[in-house]
Every structure is written in structure tokens, then in C-alpha cells.
Amino acid sequence: MRGGYGLLGPRRERHVVPAADLDALALPVGDDGVVIGVDAEGHPAVLGVNRPTPYEMTLIGGLWTAQVLTLRAAATGARIAVETGRGQVWSGLAQAAGGGQPCVTLHDVGRVPPQGASAGSPVLVVRDCGMRPPRGRVVAGPWQSVLTLLPYLSPAAPRLLRNSSLVGVQRVSPDEAQEIGRLMNLPRPAVDSLPTLGDGVTLWCTPRDRQFVMTQGTEAETGLLGPSRRID
User: Fold this and answer.
1) Which domain of life is it from (predicted)?
2) I want to staple 186 with a disulfide (CB 3.0 to 4.6 A). Which of 34, 102, 144, 181 is the partner?
3) SS3 assignment, position 143
């Protein structure tokens, strides 16, 4: 016994690695974030949503994909604030997410209050405000990312795409594909593929990088949201 400290614990040799052997160590640590699907080689595609710097994303695509991303972001511990004019299509998700904890909140367009994001409580603001989303009162900041959903290319798209750190594009018309290709500096093969993308496939891109990702719902996600689809 030691006074005030209880029983002595077991005695074991220290785990020591010689300095010369440190280079041989390898830790299986990959990107940190939300697994949004698999790439063309079948490897997990990870999107880092919780960041110490402002991060704006725009998804030209379907509600299903936006809701899957919302559920998966919530599963990483992020709080989700959904700004929407169609609360009825989000209410089931908000009730089911978080295992009874209020991790997904719904707000009318223009009525999202300050979220108080921090490293210990990151926030994702999902803006589902139609073809012409107004400028948001709550913007991206440290530990607060913003995802804006556009069902199709709209007059607001050029501004949003210019201000976004990452853009996701699902199946669009040939004319929309041409315009998106010009705005995002996409190569011709990528532009030609956009009108033919299957449900659940998204081209995530920046002006310099791009990657096709297939998102497939888990059993729980499919039970809640239905099968993957581009059209709501």
C-alpha cells in the first residue's frame, strides 16, 4: 500500500524502440472525415467536413445524396443545421439521426441561428434552399462547414462554384455539363460523362482535382431514405 494512492499496479518492462528502428514503424492512419463512397478503384473516398478553417461545398445533385452525407457527418459527431423550405422531407431524418439525441435541427430559410461551432462541437450547415438560395446568415467558419444543395444548374451556381472549396456534380443535362465544365475547368472526358452518370455517382472536383465517387446506402440508410436516386 502507498498512502493515498491505493495498491501498486503490476510491474512490466517498458516498451522501448531503438531510435534506429523508428523509420521502420508505420501507422495505418488515413484521411480523417466522412466516408462518402468508393472511388473508381474501390477504395474508400473520404471527405473532411470538420475543419479548423472555413469550408464551403456545393452539390449539384439530388436530395438523397445530401441526406446520406448529412447522416454520415452526424455519425462523426458533427451537429447538423438544415436550412430548408421543405422541412417535411427532412423531418424523418432529423428524428432518426443521433439515436434520440437532437443532433440534426431544421430551420426555415434565413432563420438559422448562430451555432457556436468549436473543435469539440463541429457543425455542418446544410442549405437546401432551392434553385436560388439567398446569401446565408450563417456562413462557413472555423469548425463550421457549409454544404449548399442545388437540384440543377441555376443562375446562382457560378457564384457558389467560385466560392466553394469543393463541388459535387451528379447527372446533369449536356448543356449544364458544358457550363459546369467551363466553370470548373473539367477535361472533355469528364464533361461528356456527366449526362450519363448513374444514380449515386458524383463527380467531386476542384479547378485542379477531380474524382468520381459511388455512394451506396447502408441497410439503415436505405431503410430510412430509400434507394439511391438523382431525381427527388
Assistant:
1) Bacteria
2) 181
3) coil
